[in-house]
Fold:
Amino acid sequence: MFSKALWLKHSKQSRLALILLYLVYVVILPFSYYNNIFEMNRALEASYTEYPSIYIGEFSTLAFISPILVLILSILLIGIERNTGGIDFQFSLPYTPRQLFLSKWIFGVVHIFIATVLLSISTLIIHYSTILHQYIDTSGFLPIFVTLFLFSIAFLTIGLAIGTLTGHYFSQTLFTIFTIFSPIIIFFSVLSNLKGLFNKDFNGLLEIEKKIVDWSISFQSGRLSITKDFDQQNVTYPTFDFHNLVVIFIYIFVFLVIGILCYSRNANANNGKLFVYKKFGHFVNILFVYLSATCIAILTSTIANGSNVVVYAIGLLIGLIAGFYFYKRLNKFFE
Structure:
């Protein structure tokens, strides 16, 4: 897992993603934090009616950018090598599939950790060398950086795990994105079909929606900013949300296990195709057709400007046919 040869191979393979990762963490984010000095000075010189509150240490954007960067990293570590044939050479090396997968995961985790540490150090240097330390303390940084670190690892793990199921970086990208948002997508598709086919409002299902949001990885970053309120003369700091952390750890554990188990099967026969497992491909085919039918049914119903059950059913039927043939053509393109 800690072989120098594997480490160098992963570094060469993922160079672009690493450059982007360190550029964001070490240059762009610290510079963004430094700009808070000018915002703070303007707020201090103006009345609180003009600046009732300002965000200091706004790291929420990183909760959006970092998952994208680590997903690119996961695609470069697994998806690309399935297309180039490098995975065949990799499995010929004197390492077990489990060691190979864990080497990729640890490689990604180490670089995320280093980038987060560098971000923390540069942020603290800027903090203590400017006026910012006079108005806020550093207690809010720990929850921000720890949450971002674990949040990024969760997305890296999901991307790598999906890469063990897909045979092409194209399908890895799309199915990873779908997996991240799948709880919400599937819930709303079911809800839309119930409303469309039965012409009723199922408001009782809204409680289920809240629970799904609470357990979806895409909503687990929480609050990642420090707010200075000039009206109330107080500062609001983010804290650890233990529910969010538990959900993040569950996603990391589940997808790490999935990745190790699937990669250990050494399924390389369908490299370059959409999915390396035919049965899993059939499942995705059914899911794709269902979601395509739902989208077209909703679109048909919207165009018809009504809630007619017959119109919705016709839309579903058209969507089923269109989705089936589109996926068939797509699958044939990658054969």
Residues 78 and 163 are 6 Å apart (CA to CA). The beta strands are 53-56, 226-229, 234-236. The first strand starts at residue 53 and ends at 56.
